[in-house]
Amino acid sequence: MFALDHCLAAVTLVSNCSTVPFVSMSMPMSPTCPFALIIEDHREVAESMCRVLERMGVAATIARDGEAALKYVEAMHFDLIIVDILLPRVNGFEVVRAIRLNPHLRAVPVMIVSCVTDPEAQAQGAAMGAVHYLCKPFEMFEFQARVEHILKGRMMRSPPAAVPLSNPDDTARLKRSEPIH
């Protein structure tokens, strides 16, 4: 678990009209606080993932379509990008492709979270450089475990400081949560 006193977790929902955010955004208050972008058009799913990240001490922002996501990745630095495949405007595979073609973004880990469950889509995601492909519906403890794995690996490659990633009480609480559909 990343120390919450070093991080300010935040949510920004970017509507289909990219000039009208639903709530204001705050940035991480510490360079040791990971910052994630959630690209998900289903508000409840995005907010559920954001709550898990917040409990982990990870600041997050949410883009509700692929076009808004591409603007975010060009303007901000993220430690993790979580992307759905079936998105309005620009689909998730196109977002991943754009990220991988940008030399400044290539090293950012991408996790695909999608209801597209066929093996070809999963293989395509892996071929494009996604580090994980999580199929919906999923349990939040599984989502948390995958995020922890990704961020732990990222910290080992470019560490600011060693911070424990999980707390057994949080894991037990998440195991009791409802699956995401």
Element layout with pairings:
Layout: E1 13-14, E2 35-39, H1 43-56, E3 59-63, H2 66-75, E4 80-83, H3 92-101, E5 110-114, H4 119-127, E6 132-135, H5 140-157, H6 168-175
Parallel strand pairs: 1-3, 2-3, 2-4, 4-5, 5-6
Helix pairs in contact: 1-5, 2-3, 5-6
Write structural notes for this entry.
The chain has 181 residues and is of the alpha/beta class. It has one domain (4-175): Rossmann fold (3-Layer(aba) Sandwich). 38% of the residues lie in helices and 14% in strands. The protein contains six helices and six strands. The protein has helices at residues 43-56, 66-75, 92-101, 119-127, 140-157, 168-175, and strands spanning 13-14, 35-39, 59-63, 80-83, 110-114, 132-135. Strands 1-3-2-4-5-6 form a six-stranded parallel beta sheet, with helices on both faces. Helix 1 links the parallel strand 2 (35-39) and strand 3 (59-63). The longest helix is centred in the C-terminal third of the chain and has 18 residues, at 140-157. The radius of gyration is 15 Å and the shape is globular.
Mean pLDDT: 77
| The CATH H-level homologous superfamily | Response regulator
| Overall tally of structural domains | 1
Question: Unreliable stretches, pLDDT < 50, 5 or more residues?
Answer: 1-29, 158-178
Task: Please name the defining characteristics of this protein.
Rossmann fold, 38% helix, 6 strands, 181 residues, alpha/beta, globular
In short:
With 181 residues, this protein is α/β, with parallel strands linked by helices.
